[in-house]
From TrEMBL:
Family: Belongs to the G-protein coupled receptor 1 family.
SUPFAM superfamilies with a match to the protein in the record: Family A G protein-coupled receptor-like
Signal peptide: none
Protein known as: Ultraviolet sensitive opsin 1
One GO cellular component, as annotated: membrane
PROSITE patterns the record matches: G_PROTEIN_RECEP_F1_1, G_PROTEIN_RECEP_F1_2
Gene3D superfamilies, per database record: Rhodopsin 7-helix transmembrane proteins (1.20.1070.10)
CDD domains: 7tmA_photoreceptors_insect
Protein topology in the membrane: Multi-pass membrane protein
Organism per entry: Coccinella septempunctata
Amino acid sequence: MSVGGKRLQRILDMRLHNWTGAGAPSALQSRAMGLEGTEVLHRLGWNVPKEELIHIQEHWLTFLEPPASMHFLLGLVYIGFFLMAIIGNGLVLWIFSSAKSLRTASNMFVVNLAFCDFVMMLKTPIFIYNSFYRGFALGQLGCQIFAFMGSLSGIGAGMTNAFIAYDRYTTITKPFDGKLTRTKAFVFILLIWLYTIPWAVMPLTEVWGRFGPEGFLTACTFDYLTNTFDNKMFVGSIFFCSYCIPMSMIVYFYSKIVSTVFNHEKALREQAKKMNVDSLRSNQNQGSQTAEVRIAKAAITICFLFVASWTPYAVLALIGAFGDQKLLTPGVSMIPACTCKFVACLDPYVYAISHPRYRQELQKRMPWLAINEPAEDTKSVATAATQNNEQEQKA
């Protein structure tokens, strides 16, 4: 008997063991209420066809299925996620692509991030369908589509966030060392996708790693449970390349931004003190902010959300591959799945709150939103820094 055949036999034996003493119930009997008014619960995978069982890790089949209400609740939550993300990211793609004032090299990264988030949420109908049918309803095909789209969009979003951090870093800390061009931005985006695609194709074709269901068997991701050397190497490699590398870039570039801004503000305060004035800033209120700083805040917020959403998934995968798998219950594994989807919903609204030109374009196209964004100050951080340096030299 082949390895796959032995694994299928073990799963079938496990399913039979779970039903010992009661017989294999029908789908109608399984969904019906018991004599004492309590719902009959079975092990996960009870309603999965025999030919599909081989694709499910035995680890998940040892747990009881959640109540039907939990499936339905998650389905409704994902419907909300889907509507929020499609509307929000759709608006970002439309406004940033059509508004001439927003068609800049830097905003090409914003469009790429919105595209990744859009793709991330296009797969949610698969989860919703599985949830309302309480399990692995769309089978291996649906699972492969779900996991492939998730890998492309998730890793692509991570690397895009890293390049957004790089762009903000060069804009704010080195404004005169060469402005980012559209050609350079396009090359960077091309590199992002060349870097991302192999990590989605390899497990899809099972060249290295594989995709499989997780948790309540309604979502799918790369397999982090198979206890083989090759699979552990894959989990370790994808953890380093798709999490550690973008995370390191984000932390480095934004720490440099924060350091530069603090040093600049300190220099302004010291010079103002020498000149016996409250502030060196002109044509603006003391508490006002330049457009670059507001955009940087939006970018920092989005990158923080990326870190907060994907860190649980990274920890989950490491525990599954190298730690105690008993810690990974179906309910626990569904938490990271929800956090990464939630962030894909929030990203466009962070820009709606913090990006001045985007708000102006929304106000122009949708006046009924009553955004009332004032005209932005044309003075940039770089210009202010140059003028203050000139004032210091004259003093």
